[in-house]
From TrEMBL:
InterPro entries: Cyt_P450, Cyt_P450_CS, Cyt_P450_E_grp-I, Cyt_P450_sf, Cytochrome_P450_monoxygenase. This is Benzoate 4-monooxygenase. It comes from Hypsizygus marmoreus (White beech mushroom). Belongs to the cytochrome P450 family. Pathway: Secondary metabolite biosynthesis. The keyword Oxidoreductase applies. PROSITE patterns: CYTOCHROME_P450 (PS00086). GO terms for molecular function: heme binding; iron ion binding; monooxygenase activity; oxidoreductase activity, acting on paired donors, with incorporation or reduction of molecular oxygen. The gene is bphA_0. Keywords: Heme, Iron, Metal-binding, Monooxygenase, Oxidoreductase. Heme binds at residue 494. SUPFAM superfamilies: Cytochrome P450 (SSF48264).
Length: 547
């Protein structure tokens, strides 16, 4: 074998004429192979001798460590929130908060952090949680300098932003003007009649369950009911879950294919996914590469919900009928300028329909389930409420007019919403241009901030005895109402609040008057997606002897 040329020559050759000759297409394979061989030949003995490489490795390692320390110190010194306490990881990465959200325990962990550290807690590098009632008017206030929804809400966007997910103030004001007509007094009166019809079907179904003497998951039945009410209001057709005793719905894919899906899990999984990936803008795209079933299911559910809404929207458009519900109002507003809708406008309608399904269905059923659980585990409240209902209602299936003005019923609902906290996490907002002062401290523009709803609703400084389930507090004082955060606050507060109260009053009064409810467990297991939700509530319903 020919002696190998010294390595310097090989390098020399590769950067000078020899490189040119290689670059010019000297395709001689043997030449190239020689070069590689020479490199290997020279480098291997150097590596094995270690002399220089150990010293350099240690040197480079120390240099890198030193640079990292200096970099971290510089970053830390310029960090505007360096003095705000919080978990170590949360200071450096949004993954900590995403992990807590993924576990469904974010509201509890944040509450414990506030108990330990006080008013301000850093829960992500750019997110400060403020547990102080005085922060509410700043973070969720109106007018000039109002905070806007943060990028967290981009995770809730389905193709097009909806009234709930849009972050643009102007776009939101326009959408809100339009959608709020569907929640006007007149619209809700129409809805009350329809709600009564669904509740009558609901009662028929529960009567049969009583006759069979079976235990049932009451959460599931409240879910069916809330979906039926909502789908009628939003789409103009009930999905008929109560009548079918099932949440299976037929959905249409973007390719026109029809599949059957469980609507309740679509909402649950989609909402939980958004609450996790919303924590950082990169998470939504990155989650596509994570083979965790949570993300895979969440994405599928998201598509499933869009498909469900698409089917209803297309059906309505094809029918050409006008009905005075939310969808009707949204279609009417768009057909003012042209009779045919563009595909972009149809996508907008679908996005609104998905939002309404998510915002209005399981929020109400989760709340009703938790309130019933609280009532049944507090015999004093139960007896007092039953007496108040019997005093005012003499029908087996009351109408809305019978239940709309029973102070102890309303007080029990409010106390249930406070104690259980359907909205338990702090709703994300972003500090506007120019920064803002909150509770005596300056926060620069774009800082994400939130006021943790659970913590405020369990703050002894506001409620005195927050761990007591005591509806009377709502009759004794009006000053506490601003601290009930269940429906949000300010310009982005819940649009369906009156509808939700209507449904809760009617359903709770009907169920409590008609049935004896035997809870199968005194403990209500819950989890958290975007909202706080019970996992199930097994009960035995039996007819009251006097009905
Ligand atoms: C007990 C039941 C309900 C609870 C606890 C609840 C809670 C909330 C909360 C906390 C927000 C504000 C979210 C945020 O700022 O991020 C909200 C917004 C909204 N809710 Fe509800 N909601 C309930 C029922 C309903 C119902 C029945 C509807 C009717 C379809 C509805 C429609 C909406 C809409 C459209 C928004 C967006 C408002 C906007 O951004 O302008 N909600 N809800």
């Amino acid at each position: 074998m020919e002696p190998l040329p010294p390595i310097t020559r090989i390098f020399g050759a590769s950067f000078s004429p020899a490189q040119e000759s290689l670059g010019q297409g000297t395709s001689d394979f043997a030449d190239r192979w020689n070069i590689v061989r020479n490199i290997l030949h020279e480098v291997t003995p150097l590596r094995s001798r270690f002399g220089w490489s150990v010293r350099s490795t240690i040197g480079i390692g120390l240099l890198l460590l030193l640079s990292a320390i200096v970099l971290l110190q510089t970053v830390a010194r310029s960090d505007p929130f360096r003095d705000i306490p919080g978990p170590f990881l949360a200071r450096w990465t949004p993954l900590w908060l995403a992990y807590q959200a993924r576990r469904g325990r974010r509201y509890l962990v944040v509450d414990q952090l506030h108990k330990k550290h006080g008013r301000f807690v850093r829960i992500s590098p750019n997110h400060i949680s403020v547990a102080d009632k005085d922060a509410l008017s700043v973070v969720y206030g109106q007018g000039n300098g109002a905070f806007h929804k943060s990028q967290f809400y981009d995770a809730f966007v389905c193709d097009k932003p909806s009234i709930f997910s849009t972050r643009d103030r102007h776009d939101h004001a326009q959408k809100r003007r339009l959608v709020s007509q569907a929640f006007s007094y007149n619209s809700l009166q129409q809805c009350a009649n329809f709600m009564h019809t669904i509740v009558c079907t609901f009662v028929k179904q529960l009567d049969s369950i009583c006759d069979e003497g079976k235990d049932v998951d009451a959460l599931l039945w409240f879910n069916y009911l809330a979906f039926d009410v909502l789908s009628d209001l939003a789409f103009g057709e009930a999905i008929d879950m109560v009548a079918n005793a099932s949440d299976v719905v037929t959905v249409e894919g973007s390719d026109g294919s029809m599949t059957e899906q469980h609507a309740i899990s679509l909402v649950d999984e989609r909402e939980h996914l958004a609450a996790v990936v919303g924590i950082h803008p990169a998470f939504k795209s990155l989650s596509k590469f994570i083979p965790d079933p949570f993300f895979i299911r969440g994405r599928k559910s998201s598509d499933g919900l869009v498909d469900l809404a698409r089917r209803s929207v297309k059906k309505r458009l094809a029918s050409g009928t006008h009905r005075d519900d939310i969808l009707g109002k949204l279609i009417f507003a768009r057909t003012q300028e042209s009779t045919t809708l563009t595909s972009g406008q149809v996508d907008e309608l679908i996005a609104e329909a998905v939002t309404l399904l998510i915002a209005g269905s399981d929020t109400t059923s989760n709340s009703m389930t938790a309130i019933i659980h609280l009532i049944m585990t507090h015999p004093r409240v139960y007896s007092k409420l039953l007496a108040a209902l019997e005093d005012r209602i003499d029908s087996e299936t009351p109408e809305y007019g019978d239940v709309k003005d029973i102070p102890y019923l309303d007080a029990t609902i409010d106390e249930g919403l406070r104690y259980y906290a359907t909205t338990a996490i702090g709703l994300h907002r972003a500090v506007p241009e120019g920064g803002a002062i909150c509770c005596g401290r300056y926060f620069p523009e774009s800082t994400e901030m939130s006021v943790p709803a659970w913590t405020i609703q369990h703050d002894p400084a506001i409620w005195g005895d927050p761990e007591m389930f005591r509806p009377e507090r709502w009759l004794d004082s009006k000053d506490i109402r601003p601290y009930l955060l269940t429906f949000g606050k300010g310009p982005r507060a819940c649009l369906g609040r009156n509808l939700a109260y209507m449904e809760m009053r009617l359903v709770l009064a009907t169920v409590l008057l008609r049935y004896n409810i035997e809870l199968k467990s005194d403990i209500l297991e819950t989890t958290e997606g975007f909202m706080h939700k019970p996992l199930s509530m097994m009960v035995k319903f039996s007819r009251h002897p006097w009905t």
